[in-house]
Amino acid sequence: MKTPTAADLPFYFNYRSNPAIAAAEGRIPDQTTAQAQKHLHMIIAGNGSANYSWFIVPAGTETPVGTIAIWGFSADRTTAELAYGLLPKFQHHGYMHAALAQVTAFAFSRLQLTRLDCYTAASNTPSLNLLTSSGFTHRETITEDNLAGEPTTMVIYAQDRPL
After folding, report:
1. What phi-psi label fits residue 75: left (phi over 0), alpha (psi between -120 and 50 degrees) or beta?
2. How many CB atoms lie within 10 A of CB 145?
3. At 108, which CATH number?
4. Domain containing 90: what range?
5. pTM for this entry
6. pLDDT tens across 126-150, in order?
7. Closest CA to 51 of 61, 40, 43
8. How many CB atoms lie within 10 A of CB 163?
9. Helices marked H in the chain — which ranges?
10. Is 74:63 a contact under the CB 8 Å cutoff?
């Protein structure tokens, strides 16, 4: 994994403009590099305070294939939300499982979070399987409007800090 930089814009535009990823994230795909650049700048500016974001880079390469982040901290900074995604052709190769293990360990040991939450679409079976196999448990099912304004059934999975 690596910390995002402005030089990662080509990857990030590819990621943010991908229709399958946008649908999974409940948002409209970015149409311009300026849109992706604005979001990338926001991530970089907040990294280490408002969020902790990384790009997933397979061993032996320098090209990112996905993202993973901790964000949405509670006011007392004891809980936060997890977000992640991979370009479709890199899904089902174990990259996210490895990244999730690293980020979960970071959340509990370095940030001292007591709980890490993850919202995912109820229909996203690969994500549900990833969370379950990584020690997350189902906490709640909700229906809310996604970023595209469409009602979506979401499930909240969570993992508590090990004792």
Report:
1. alpha
2. 10
3. 3.40.630.30
4. 6-160
5. 0.91
6. 999 999 999 999 999 999 888 778 8
7. 43
8. 3
9. 9-16, 19-25, 33-46, 95-109, 125-133
10. no
Residue 26 has pLDDT above 90, yes or no: no
Q: Is the pLDDT of residue 23 over 90?
A: no
Average pLDDT of the segment spanning 41-47: 91
Contact 34, 55 (CB under 8 A): no
What is the rounded distance in angstroms from the CA atom of residue 42 to the CA atom of residue 68?
15
- Decide if 152 is inside a domain: yes
Whether 101 is in a domain gets the answer yes
Order across the sheet with 151-160: list the strands: 52-56, 66-71, 79-86, 115-121, 151-160, 137-145
Say if CB 84 and CB 100 are below 8 A apart. yes
Instruction: Give SS3 for 156.
Output: strand
In a domain? residue 48: yes
pLDDT of residue 148: 76
Report the domain count for the chain: 1
Is 1 part of any domain? no
